[in-house]
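Chain A, query sequence.
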Amino acid sequence: MVTEHEGLAREFQHVTKPSEIEHVKSLFEGKDPLMREMAYALITGDQHTVDRLTRQALDDGFSANDVLDDGLISGMAIVGIKFRDNIIFVPEVLVAARAMKAGMAHIEPILSESGIEPIGAVVMGTVKGDLHDIGKNLCIMMLRGAGFVVHDLGVDTSPQEFIEAVADHDARVLGMSALLTTTMPNMGRTIQSFEDEGLREDVKIMVGGAPVTQEFAEDMGADGYGKDAIACVDMAKELVGGAARA
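Chain A, predicted structure.
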């Protein structure tokens, strides 16, 4: 039987990029064993254990924010890296997402009642012609866990739908996803639509997806690019900060 400690050690071996190693270490080092056990249960998709440990942690006096950050989000960060690097695939991500949802069922009501102001509103959607949403949904889960209010437009989202959602929700950040190279140009068309409507200065736009690159994002006129769910959250925080200063 693999222990939680041995299991996490094995999971850490999947993190090979130097820029991510220290970040991942900071998520787990010095954390309570209960949080580490919860993270490992989430990584392995054990929703019943995540549910049980989340309730136990809250009953033991852990704050909702600590459970979210040190248990759930830390585990999902590893899931995001493994998915990006093709170590796991859609079924495993869905199982992990279900496990995180089990934990969030206990966390969200507490956070809602706390009166803590959200970091900001984000509109997210997959661009017109593209029906893929696993990566987008993973980013949304991480963004919500980080304190953003996220409005999910789903897939096959037209430029006009993005424009209306940003206006309706007074969103400071717009995130667009694409998995197909044939739909990537629709990111540029959406950005141009904001330009044509005179709304480009009102929102920061970030893009992502397997075929999307930093160079493509810059060519399309996006404000930021996130290569995975972790980078998506970091970029959203950076863009919200920039919007606040503007």
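The mean pLDDT is 89. The first helix runs from residue 4 to 12.
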